[in-house]
Amino acid sequence: MAGLGNCIIGGQFQVTAGLPGGKPGLPAAVLGGGAGTPPINGSAWIEGPMLIGSPISYPLPRPAATLMIGRTKNYLAPEAASGLPMVMITSRGFAPTPTDLLIGDPSGIVGMTINSSTISIFNAKTISIVSKNVTAVSKLNWIGKVNVVGKTSFKGKSTTTGKKTINGKTTINGALTVNGACKINGFLKFTGSIVGTTKKFDIPHPTKENHRLAHSCIEGPENGVYYRGRLSGKNVIELPDYWQGLIDPESITVNLTPHRTYQELFVKSIEWGTKITVLNNSGGPIDCSYTVFAKRKDIADLIVEYEGNEPKEWSTVGK
Model pTM? Predict the structure, then answer.
C-alpha cells in the first residue's frame, strides 16, 4: 500500500466506486454537481462502510455498521491521542440550537439502542421526550427538575433528587418508597389501606392569624363507622339506607345523652340495621343526642395483632 503524506483537497472528496458505467453517484444530487450545480467545495462523500479509530473493537468477518468509531490508537502520536473522547460535538463560539444533534426526522424515523454503563447529561435547560411509550428498566437516577407529560411506567428502582413535576397519568407497578416529605395538591385515591403511625389533618387556623390547627384520628381495633344526631319529639333514630349494605347490624352500639331534663333513656330495639327505637323509662318526652357505632362488613375484619416486623398488605391481613 502506497503511503500519502498531508493531503489538501480543494474541491469535493469522494471515496466510491460510483455507479455502473462510470456514472457519478448520489453526491451529484445531495452535495451538488448535478443539473448545472457545481459540487460543494469542502464536502465529502464516503460510500462506506467507514472505520475511525482502532479496529480492535470491530472484529471480522464483516463490518458492524456504516460508520464505526473505535478508541483512538495513533502509534505515531500516542501522547496526543491518549484519553480522548470517542465522539465530541460542540458549538463553542456559536449559539446552541435544538437541532445541533439530530437523529432521524419525522419522515425517516430511526431506532436507537444505547448499551452504556453511565449516561450523564449536564447543563441542559430542557430535556424533552415526546413518545407514546417511554420504558425505563433497572435503576434510574434523576438529579434536578423533571417534567413528565403523559403516561409514565417505571419497572425497577427509580431515584429522584430534586423537584419532580408529573403532568398526566402515572402508573407505578410495585412498591413506592419516599424518603422525606411528600406534598400532594389535589385528590388522592387509594384502593387499598393506608398504614401510618398517625393519621391527622393540619390546616390554617380558622380563628388565629399565623397559626395552624392539627387534629388526629381516633384509633380503634376495628373498621368502624358512626352516625350521630339529635332526637327530639320522637323516639326513632332512622339510620341511613346505605347502612344495610355497609355494616354488620349485630355490631351496632348506641350512646344516648339526655338534654335539659333527667331522662331514663334506653334502646328498646334495633330493626335490621335500619332504625333504632328509644324509650324513656320515666315516661316523659325524649330530647337527646345520639351516636351510633357499627363495624363495616364490606371489607375483611381487622387483625389487631400479628407476627412480623413490617406492616402487611391489606390483602394478606384480615382474611
Answer: 0.52
* pLDDT band at 262; cut points 50, 70, 90: very high
Instruction: Answer whether 12's CB lies under 8 Å from 45's CB.
Output: yes
Residue type for position 108: G
How many whole angstroms from its chain centre is CA 50?
41
3-state SS of 90-136?
A: CCCCCCCCCCCCCCCECCECCCCCCCCCCCCCCCCCCCCCCCCCCEE
Structure-block grid coordinates of residue 281: 323509662
Closest by Cα among 214, 211, 192 to 202: 214
Q: Please answer whether residues 198 and 179 qualify as being in contact, where contact means their C-beta atoms are separated by less than 8 angstroms.
A: no
Q: How far apart are CA 114 and CA 191, in angstroms?
A: 38
| Helices and strands of the chain, counted as H and E runs | 3, 19
What distance in Å separates the CA atoms of residue 199 and residue 203, rounded to the nearest whole number?
Answer: 14
Q: How far is CA 190 from CA 19, 246, 314, in A?
A: 67, 18, 12
Alpha-carbon distance of 249 to 273, in angstroms, equals 5
Q: What is the pLDDT of residues 220-258, one digit of tens each?
A: 999 999 999 999 999 999 999 999 999 999 999 999 999
Instruction: Print burial letters for 256-269: b (CB count within 10 Å at least 16), e (below 16).
Output: bebeeeebebebee
Q: Are residues 256 and 230 in contact, defined by beta-carbon separation less than 8 angstroms?
A: no
CA distance 118 to 36: 49
Contact between 39 and 45 under an 8 Å Cβ cutoff? The reply is: no
pLDDT over threshold 70, residue 29: no
Helix H or strand E encompassing 80: helix 78-81
Are residues 32 and 42 in contact, defined by beta-carbon separation less than 8 angstroms?
Answer: no
What are the grid coordinates assigned to 21, written together? 458505467
Residue 154 CB-half CA count within 13 A: 16
Q: Of all helices (H) and strands (E), which one includes residue 232? A: strand 224-232
